[in-house]
UniProtKB/TrEMBL annotation:
GO molecular function, one term: glycosyltransferase activity
Protein name per the record: Cellobiose phosphorylase protein
Single biological process term from Gene Ontology: carbohydrate metabolic process
UniProt xrefs under Pfam families: GH94_b-supersand (PF06165), Glyco_hydro_94 (PF17167)
UniProt entry keywords in alphabetical sequence: Glycosyltransferase, Transferase
């Protein structure tokens, strides 16, 4: 049995028998541009972006079948070729290596032992934190026998050195651009051009492989030409050049042009005495500006250990911003690894790991805001800057830019010229901004001004602005040619108001190109998203509540773009679908090309009333029209309408159809009544719950390829969006249940996913939360998933109840009895208003959740006053110290 387990309290994990599990990989990054992956066979790839891959791009299948990895060959006297990475023809057949893995923040160590050879090898891979784009692997070889061990070592790492697009498109032609050079202890390749048939450009990026030894010896042999290294009839897992002769004719200073490049570096024969060790460091370097050999030469074996310690210290401090202590120490450490995932997605985007073999890098609009949820809890010092810059992606028609750049606030027009709108995109900015406002109390943020994104696609991409050309840039202009800016509040109002009018024939908001579920992409004409209609209703109500708070602080009016008056009219009834369309089209026609730039003053009383009325009308509509009573035991909300205008859910062809998404947002938005909540829980358990996949499926099996709904129904059931246990929505389901006071049900969702993921024999992933669980129980699309942000949000905001209330500290724990340790304590160390706090809940009577309440609160052992609100307490943040505050919360009987 394989077992992935945490070491006691040091946040590293180990895995025995690692070679017996396929598809495992671990992310490596320098914290900036370098992005790589590695497994126990040192396979994976390394890149800076879509167009700068140092190693051949890999998908999940390539992890087992691709030979273009990191190789460290040993030609052992009396045995023959042996690869420290395990990738050799002989080792694959014999399978007599024992392989174990250890990993921490952010390194990966493989230990490979061979009893016949009495050989032990450690391979430790990491990237030094900083702007040097270098990945290092130290290979430490120990002779565990009682006899001398003699071998000749050779590093061999094929250098791909080009765009991922060329993996199939012009693979050989782009090799003709290669310009390789042998340097001391290294091979450098700087292709002459960056190949692009739309316009070739001079290439300035240099790629290199280097190797050093702990005795600082010079390399003896170089193998820069891949085909010569492999040899005629050979392969990368059995290179004939190493069998025939350890010598080559290449010397330092030699060039090799127009062929596939191999980072092949051989050292002289060495002999290890019994129990003696020897270390080598092999590095992969990408340089865009500085001399590559100067960068690489600093990473000696001695420097490896120093840089390794510095890297671990950085990430340890980084990850210290959130930690918990409950009655389950394994869960506590698991939360640490989940909290790393939003940071990884900020660096990797939604691509660039083996499962994420789609896209060209960067993140989508939704991802920007989802990731900020967790960053608010772990990296709050940067969040205001990120949020502010993200709002620059909003368009004046209420949609947003579709292509996100690598820098905050960088948006570009759709590069594929494919007009598309995801109707949920306008919902997320407020959801994230609300969390920021609650925790920071910085309501001035709403009145900062920001520009709008502009391209030729307008009116929800239904038409084009014929006056637009790319030379005018991507910022919205007014009629005088000036860049127009509006407040952040204006951006928020615009995104939510526009959606209110953009309804289908059943008076729910149009699905457009898709919503959160990208697979619902074939119902653009008549499709409606009931579920996100509920989300927008929640937003409208919450915005009105914040405006009410600002009114109480003395604000009486706000300014918005003059044209937005059209969207704030009160004389259209909710049921007047045609009137809604006329209103929306009137607004669209006013802002097709430019805007007036004029501001209208809106009284706060009137705006609050308008938003509340809109929200309440949607609530009543959904309760009356979209609640489905299937039978006495089954009832739930319909979530969608298909492209024929038919309900997606309910009893169809004598078969009950249900989606999880359709339930989450009516719950989260308080549209579902308490009785409906109970029915939803019961129906979800009946139709969607599956213990084999760790929880609730996204939908049950429709047994139909619904071309009138979306591509997801073409996927096999149980995979990805079609009925998998999709972690993101499961986490939002848990959050919605917490909101409804269903604490036990919510907690069970978190704990079941945790238990499933940590059951390595089933999940077959390193610790963390994957995007989804496949029908066999395997975790898929690991690391880069928005579910990690919602998992952390649930732990901090709900389980430990560390919330914000208009800038004040709001403590409302939902800890269950078993989550306290034997002493009746459960604690969380986190950041609140950018200050470190440790909050310890003391439950000495071991009371259940329904039986305790907060009796007293102590800041650094001194009791502080509080106000009871909503089953929790609110505390003035002035009691917090600037550096650190230890908070004890005493729980006692209700």
């Amino acid at each position: 049995m394989n077992k992935c387990k945490f070491k006691e309290k040091n946040e590293t994990f180990t895995l025995d028998n690692a070679k017996d599990t396929s598809y495992l990989y671990f992310p490596i990054t320098n914290g900036f541009k370098l992005k790589s992956s590695v497994n126990s066979q040192l396979n994976g790839d390394l890149k800076l972006d879509q167009n700068q891959f140092a190693m051949v791009p890999v998908s999940q299948e390539d992890l087992q079948n691709n030979l273009f990895g990191r190789h460290f060959w040993m030609n052992i006297n009396g045995f023959g070729l042996y690869n420290a990475s395990g990738v050799s023809a002989v080792q694959k057949v014999r399978q007599d290596d024992d392989v174990s893995v250890e990993a921490g923040f952010l390194y990966h160590k493989t230990t490979r032992t061979n009893d016949e050879l009495r050989l032990s090898i450690e391979l430790t891979t990491f990237s030094p934190y900083g702007h040097d784009n270098v990945e290092l692997t130290k290979v430490t070889i120990q002779n565990s026998s009682e006899k001398p061990l003699t071998f000749t070592p050779t590093v061999a790492i094929p250098l791909y050195s080009r765009s991922a697009d060329n993996l199939r498109d012009h693979r050989h032609v782009t090799a003709l651009l290669n310009r390789a050079k042998v340097v001391q202890n290294g091979i450098i390749n700087q292709p002459s051009l960056s190949f692009d048939e739309r316009g070739h450009q001079v290439n300035h990026t240099r790629y290199g492989v280097f190797a050093t030894t702990d005795t600082q010896e010079a390399a003896k042999a170089y193998y820069p030409k891949l085909q010569e290294f492999v040899g005629e009839g050979g392969s990368l897992d059995w290179p004939k050049s190493l069998l025939e002769s350890p010598d080559t004719t290449y010397q330092v200073g030699d060039d090799m042009d127009g062929f596939e490049v191999n980072g092949g570096i051989g050292f002289a024969e060495t002999t290890l005495a019994p129990q003696e060790t020897k270390s080598y460091v092999m590095s992969i370097v990408v340089s865009e500006d500085e001399p590559i050999d100067e960068m690489a030469n600093q990473y000696t074996v001695d420097m490896f250990d120093q840089k390794f310690d510095e890297m671990r210290a950085y990430w340890s401090e980084k990850m210290s911003s959130l930690s918990i202590q409950t009655g389950d120490s394994q869960f506590d450490q698991y939360v640490k690894w989940v909290s790393l995932q939003p940071i990884l997605r900020r660096i990797f985007g939604c691509s660039f790991l083996p499962h994420h073999d789609y896209g060209r890098g960067g993140r989508g609009w939704r991802d920007l805001w989802q990731d900020c949820l967790a960053l608010l809890l772990t990296e709050p010092e940067d969040v205001e800057y990120l949020l502010y810059n993200n709002y620059l992606g909003v368009k004046i028609d209420g949609t947003n830019a579709t292509i996100i750049g690598s820098e905050p606030g960088e948006f570009v027009a759709d590069r594929n010229n494919i007009p598309r709108v995801w109707m949920d995109h306008g919902a997320w900015p407020w959801n994230t901004t609300k969390l920021y406002l609650e925790r920071s109390g910085n309501y001035d943020f709403l009145f900062r001004t920001q520009g709008y994104f502009k391209d030729k696609h307008v009116h929800f991409t239904r038409t084009e602005d014929e006056t637009y050309d790319e030379s005018q840039g991507t910022l919205q202009k007014d009629k005088d040619g000036n860049v127009y800016e509006g407040t952040i509040l204006e951006h928020i109002l615009l995104q939510n108001l526009v959606q209110y009018y953009n309804v289908g024939e059943h008076n729910n908001m149009r699905l457009e190109g898709a919503d959160w579920n990208d697979g619902l992409d074939m119902a653009k004409d008549k499709g409606e998203s009931v579920t996100f209609t509920a989300f927008y209703a929640m937003n409208l109500m919450q915005i009105s509540e914040v405006l009410t708070h600002l009114k109480e602080q003395g604000l009486s009016s706000i300014e918005v773009l003059e044209e937005m008056r059209v969207l704030l009219t009160n004389d259209i009834s909710f049921d007047d679908i045609e009137g809604k369309h006329e209103t929306l089209n009137k607004y669209f026609n006013l802002i097709t090309s430019t805007v007036s730039g004029k501001k209208a003053t809106i009284k706060l009383d009137e705006l609050i009333s308008t938003l509340k009325n809109m929200s309440e009308a949607i609530r009543d509509h959904l309760r009356n029209k979209e609640w489905l009573k299937v039978n006495d035991n089954t009832a739930f909300y319909n979530g969608y309408y298909d492209n024929k205008g038919n309900k997606l859910e309910g009893v169809i062809n004598d078969h009950v159809r249900m989606t999880l998404t359709g339930q989450v947002f009516p719950l989260m938005s308080d549209i579902a009544t308490s009785e409906q909540t109970k029915d939803i829980i019961a129906s979800s358990k009946e139709l969607l719950y599956d213990q084999k996949v760790g929880g609730y499926r996204l939908n049950n099996n429709y047994n139909e390829v619904k071309l009138d709904m979306g591509r997801l129904f073409g996927f096999a059931f149980g995979h990805k969006e079609n009925g998998a246990m999709f972690s993101h929505m499961a986490m939002m389901f848990a959050n919605a249940l917490y909101q409804q006071g269903e604490t036990k049900e919510a907690t069970s969702i978190l704990e079941e996913i945790y238990e499933h993921c940590m059951d390595f024999d089933t999940s077959k992933i390193y610790p963390g939360i994957p995007e989804y669980i496949d029908p066999d129980g395997r975790g898929m699309y690991h690391y880069l998933t928005g579910s990690a942000s919602w998992f952390i949000l649930n732990v901090v905001n709900e389980m430990f109840g560390v919330k914000g209330h208009y800038g004040k500290l709001h403590l409302k724990p939902s800890l269950l009895k078993h989550q306290f340790n034997a002493d009746g304590k459960a604690s969380i160390s986190t950041l609140y208003r950018e200050r470190k706090v440790t909050i310890t809940y003391t439950n000495v009577k071991q009371l259940s959740h329904d039986d305790y309440q907060i009796k007293s609160v102590l800041f650094n052992n001194e009791e502080v006053p509080f106000e009871h609100v909503d089953n929790g307490v609110i505390i003035d943040p002035s009691h917090l110290n600037d550096d650190y505050t230890d908070i004890e919360v005493i729980l006692d009987e209700v």
